[in-house]
Write a structure and sequence with these properties.
Number of domains of chain A: 2
Strand content of chain A: 35-45%
Strand order of the largest sheet of chain B: 3-2-4-7-1-8-11-10-9
CATH superfamily of chain B: Thiolase/Chalcone synthase
Low-confidence stretches of chain A: none
CATH architecture of chain B: 3-Layer(aba) Sandwich
Oligomer: heterodimer
Helix content of chain A: under 10%
Structural class of chain B: alpha/beta
Shape of chain A: globular
Number of helices of chain B: 12
Structural class of chain A: mainly beta
Bound molecules: zinc ion
Largest interface: A-B, 45 and 47 residues
Mean pLDDT of chain B: 95
Strand order of the largest sheet of chain A: 4-5-6-8-7
Largest sheet of chain B: 9 strands, mixed
CATH class of chain B: Alpha Beta
Low-confidence stretches of chain B: none
Radius of gyration of chain B: 20 Å
CATH topology of chain B: Peroxisomal Thiolase, Chain A, domain 1
Helix content of chain B: 25-40%
Mean pLDDT of chain A: 93
CATH class of the largest domain in chain A: Mainly Beta
Distance between the termini of chain A: 33 Å
Number of strands of chain B: 11
CATH architecture of the largest domain in chain A: Beta Barrel
Number of strands of chain A: 8
Number of helices of chain A: 1
Radius of gyration of chain A: 15 Å
CATH topology of the largest domain in chain A: OB fold (Dihydrolipoamide Acetyltransferase, E2P)
Distance between the termini of chain B: 21 Å
């Protein structure tokens, strides 16, 4: 389960409320995921990231079905999606396809939206994705 | 930036390699000292002549394994001390593309005069237990963004861009299998290989269960214990040594340019930065893809073969799977591109770039025995992903 730290705590608090927030550099206003000590976009050394509401829809860029997990606490198989959030071209999230047991996508480019799930092994809610109905 | 001053100024003059096995019955460090002595003797030198040591000591593994110098890893400092050398330059490469990185450090040391003879070694250890397994329950730091979702380890990492390639370009498991079958065919012919005498056919490949779609265990090189060492010196000194020198024409290293989640390698990042890696190699060498007889592409995961073939320009982006399936890299076909003739990692074991460098050296030095490929003049030894690793070009002639 995630261990929130000084920087990431707002992300996990919002996730517990079912809200997706992402770090935004207060210097160049770029959404950055994950946040780093130096802004990877403008390279400011004091980026003062603010966690702001992020788009909750996106498209599938790739996926893989995990059939053997190398971590404890995961029921296999499950599908992981590589998702580009709408309007944030160069930012990707990786999350599970919900609900458990759902068949993987058929094509790249399928629309998805964010949901929050408590993992099988317990712990805080994490962002996952549901395939949007066309 | 001024021109690359090291072209053909440094040569590989000798080498040695241990057998590549699942587990050696001796500590890795003891094996490394023996292999280093053998390589130095092969170059016609003594330990007293060797004053430079470079390596990349990265174990590496994703699992929870302790790192102990001389046992699970062998640093350049450890090796120099335990050989009883009196070195003037000892260092390690910290990035990926470990062997090209260590060779580049050796070239720079020889060009600067910091050392006269440099031993480059690579020692790989296969820890007992699951190589990638982790009992970790808590995800701190960078891992908190991916581990809670179950995104963990290199097999999931390579699953995403490989499926992206499948979906975009219509590649199939049969196409990926063709890569593995070629590597294992060549590896089966190498007496030192973990897979000696053990080729794989496509039916066996297709019967393997998937680990992370579309990756199965045959797409992943097998973790092994093994050590290789190469001796490098200046082209001038190389003239007086017993083996035919193999010149370092150029080296290149990749610099990932986009900020990503840990272990996230989108296909476009691989292609974009891979093309830049190749450009650097062509610019520094003054040569192009058509001048290369032996591009030994990296294959720690089978799809890397496609990514490198495309990065180096042997196929348009999205075409490498058809090229390989059509016999394009068949080492037994005259006129094909023998891109895995040295068995690669899939056909030798997880030696992290050693099979590629060794094949370049043996073929270009005329020391490949009954596998000798007549007329081979230029080779490239690649390692890791084209957007994360590196490559070294070698030549049998001063270019
Ligand atoms: Zn910024």
């Amino acid at each position: 389960m995630p261990v929130p730290d000084e920087v990431s705590a707002p992300f996990w608090e919002a996730a517990a409320d079912g809200r997706l927030v992402l770090a935004r550099c207060s210097r160049c206003e770029t959404f950055v995921h994950p946040p780093e000590p130096v802004c990877p976009h403008c390279h400011h050394t004091d980026p003062r990231f603010a966690f702001e509401p992020a788009p909750t829809t996106g498209v599938v860029r790739s996926w893989t079905v995990i059939r053997q997990s190398f971590l404890p606490g995961f029921n296999v198989p499950f599908t992981l999606l590589d998702v580009a959030l709408d309007g944030l071209d160069d930012l990707r999230l990786i999350g599970r396809l919900a609900p458990e047991g759902r068949e993987p996508p058929e094509h790249i480019g399928e629309p998805v939206h964010v949901v929050f799930e408590v993992p099988a092994g317990g712990g805080p809610a994490v962002p996952s994705f549901v395939l949007s109905e066309p | 930036m001024t021109g690359f001053a090291a072209r053909s100024k440094v040569a590989v003059v000798g080498c040695a390699q241990s057998p590549i096995v699942k587990h050696h019955d001796r500590p890795l460090g003891a094996l490394a000292v023996d292999v280093a002595r053998e390589a130095i003797a092969d170059a016609g030198l003594t330990v007293a002549d060797v004053d430079g040591f470079t390596t990349s000591a990265l174990l590496p593994t994703a699992g929870d394994h302790p790192v102990v110098d001389g046992v699970s890893t062998v640093s350049a400092n450890w090796l120099a001390a335990n050989l009883g050398a009196d070195p003037s330059y000892v260092t390690g490469f910290q990035g990926y593309g470990q062997l090209p990185g260590a060779v580049a450090l050796a070239v720079n040391a020889l060009m600067s005069g910091a050392a006269d003879h440099v031993l480059v070694h690579r020692a790989l250890h296969n820890p007992a237990g699951r190589y990638h397994g982790s009992a970790q329950q808590q995800a701190r730091g960078a891992a908190q963004w991916t581990m809670p979702q179950g995104y963990f380890g290199p097999i999931a990492m390579i699953g995403l861009p490989t499926n992206e390639y499948f979906q975009r370009y219509g590649a199939t498991r049969e196409d990926l299998g063709a890569v593995v079958v070629e590597a294992r065919k060549n590896g089966a012919r190498l007496p030192w290989s973990h897979w000696h005498g053990s080729p794989l056919d496509l039916d066996e490949y297709l019967a393997a269960p998937l680990l992370a779609d579309p990756i199965c265990r045959f797409d992943c090189d097998r973790p092994v214990d093994g050590v290789a060492a190469f001796v490098l010196t200046t082209a001038e000194r190389a003239r007086d040594l017993p083996n035919r020198p193999v010149y370092v024409t150029a080296y290149a290293g990749a610099q990932p340019s986009r900020h990503r989640l840990p272990l996230h390698w989108p296909l476009d990042d691989i292609a974009e930065v891979g093309a830049a890696t190749a450009r650097q190699l062509w610019e520094r060498s003054g040569l192009g893809a058509d001048d290369v007889d032996l591009p030994q592409v990296y294959d720690g995961f089978s799809p890397f073969v496609w990514f490198w073939l495309e990065a180096l320009g042997y196929c348009p982006v999205g075409e490498a799977h058809r090229f390989v399936s059509g016999g394009g890299i068949d080492s037994d076909v005259l006129g094909a591109l023998p891109a895995l003739s040295g068995g690669g990692a899939l056909g030798s074991g997880r030696m992290h770039g050693v099979p590629q460098m060794l094949e370049c050296y043996l073929q270009l030095a005329g020391r490949a025995g009954d596998r000798q490929r007549e007329g081979a003049r230029v080779g490239i030894a690649c390692q890791a992903s084209p957007h994360f690793g590196g490559a070294v070009m070698y030549s049998s002639e001063v270019m």
